């Protein structure tokens, strides 16, 4: 029984490691870069910022968004205010942004966005950009968005989210994790002709397309996963634009990190169960490899947990002289190689090495999360922000 269990886990974790390695290697493939040309016409852009109890950060975010190097009459910042304090509302009303106040018995990001879309006139904008309340766009972000969507006729794109803080070991590890995700699940996929993935913010859509799909999204947690799967199911490709940067606050303490990961893991399991069968059938009947690949991603275990289990299992098999020990070692090697390939050069520094020493504690916290997933996808779990760099 133990042998068959070990074999099953080896195939599962080894297969997941091979999957990661394929796309990590693909990310290194150099493609011909088409020079960007500045367009004379400006798209009308709606920047939607959902702010739930984000009094500590939202004013700074809006102020920075107002300084974009873009035609001022061609973009509008729309703050969706949910449970903000009265003084924050007054301050926002004095700023050059549109304020839409919402209130729900049980708040979710999807509800807030859909409520805002219901009061914004249809066909009023060309593009919609979704930001979190802590996000800061680079100064020419809108210009680059405008050029990319006009020249390449894109429908949906995920831009690169970059950590804007490294004030703790947890924040460094959180930023490193997102950087690896960018490499494997966005850049590597795009190099092989597959869709990237949506990451909750820094997302750009054709406005009417977004409005049409978003009205059917009612997720409590992980609305971006549901939106991503629905788009790809309908053969709408998600492009990745690595040269467009949005700076995103990383969680700085382990308690907030655990709540965030609990929400993410619960959402992944929920949407895997909901879409896997449909995706397999779509692949068999209609050859929808992009949708099938996306469902495979939902099956993959969290990357840190995967590496930890591989390491522990490899050590255990060598201790008991298990006949599968060498295969576990190969799987662990492939996993580590994939992760190392996916780490951007900017993370090869002393602070990262120091943060890596914190991994065992983070791994233990994530392992315990697996036993606390019940109900996590049935309630809104908020991640607070306050970092203003």
How are the strands of the biggest sheet laid out side by side? 3-2-1-4-7-6-8-5
CATH class membership of the largest domain: Alpha Beta
Rg over CA atoms: 21 Å
Number of H/I helices:
14
Instruction: Please mark out the parts with pLDDT under 50 across 5 or more consecutive residues, or reply none.
Output: none
Average pLDDT rating: 91
Oligomeric form of this entry? single chain
Overall tally of structural domains: 2
Shape: globular
Q: What's the helical proportion of residues?
A: 40-55%
In the CATH hierarchy, what is the architecture of the largest domain at level 2?
Alpha-Beta Complex
N-to-C series of helices and strands: HEHEHEHEEHEHEHHEHHHHHH
> Structural class given helices, strands, pairing?
alpha/beta
Largest sheet: 8 strands, mixed
**Fourth-level CATH superfamily of the largest domain:** Spore Coat Polysaccharide Biosynthesis Protein SpsA, Chain A
Please indicate the percent range of residues in DSSP E strands (runs of 2 or more). 5-15%
Total strand segments: 8
CATH fold-level label of the largest domain: Spore Coat Polysaccharide Biosynthesis Protein SpsA, Chain A
Cα separation of the termini: 54 Å
């Amino acid at each position: 029984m133990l042998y068959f269990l070990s074999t099953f886990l080896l195939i599962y974790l080894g297969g997941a490691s091979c999957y990661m390695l394929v796309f990590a290697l693909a990310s290194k493939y150099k493609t011909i870069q088409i020079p960007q040309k500045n367009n004379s016409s400006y798209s009308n852009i709606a920047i939607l910022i959902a702010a739930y109890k984000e009094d500590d950060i939202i004013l700074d975010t809006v102020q920075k968004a107002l300084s974009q190097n873009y035609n001022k009459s061609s973009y509008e910042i729309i703050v969706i205010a949910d449970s903000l304090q009265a003084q924050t509302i007054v301050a926002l009303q004095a700023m050059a942004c549109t304020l839409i106040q919402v209130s729900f018995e049980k708040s979710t990001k999807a509800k807030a966005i859909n409520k805002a879309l219901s009061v914004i006139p249809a066909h009023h904008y060309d593009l919609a950009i979704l930001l979190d309340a802590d996000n800061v766009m680079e100064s020419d972000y809108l210009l680059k968005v405008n050029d990319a969507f006009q020249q390449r006729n894109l429908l949906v794109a995920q831009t690169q989210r970059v950590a804007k803080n490294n004030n703790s070991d947890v924040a460094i590890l959180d930023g490193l994790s997102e950087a690896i995700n960018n490499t494997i699940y966005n850049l590597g996929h795009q190099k092989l002709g597959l869709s990237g993935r949506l990451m909750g913010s820094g997302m750009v859509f054709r406005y009417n397309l977004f409005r049409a799909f978003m009205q059917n999204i009612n997720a409590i947690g992980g609305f971006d996963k549901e939106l991503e799967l629905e788009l790809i199911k309908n053969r709408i490709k998600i492009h990745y634009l690595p040269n467009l940067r949005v700076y995103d606050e990383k969680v700085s303490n382990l308690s907030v990190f655990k709540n965030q990961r609990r929400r993410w893991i619960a959402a992944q399991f929920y949407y895997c169960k909901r879409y896997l069968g449909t995706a397999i059938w779509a692949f068999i009947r209609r050859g929808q490899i992009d949708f099938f690949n996306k469902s495979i991603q939902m099956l993959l275990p969290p990357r840190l947990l995967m590496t930890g289990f591989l390491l522990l299992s490899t050590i255990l098999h060598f201790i008991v002289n298990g006949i599968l020990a060498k295969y576990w070692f190969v799987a662990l090697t492939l996993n580590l190689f994939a992760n190392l390939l996916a780490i951007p050069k900017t993370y090869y520094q002393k602070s990262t090495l120091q943060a890596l020493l914190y991994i065992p504690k983070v791994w233990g916290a994530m392992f315990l999360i697996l036993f606390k997933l019940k109900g996590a996808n049935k309630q809104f779990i908020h991640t607070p922000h306050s970092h203003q760099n």
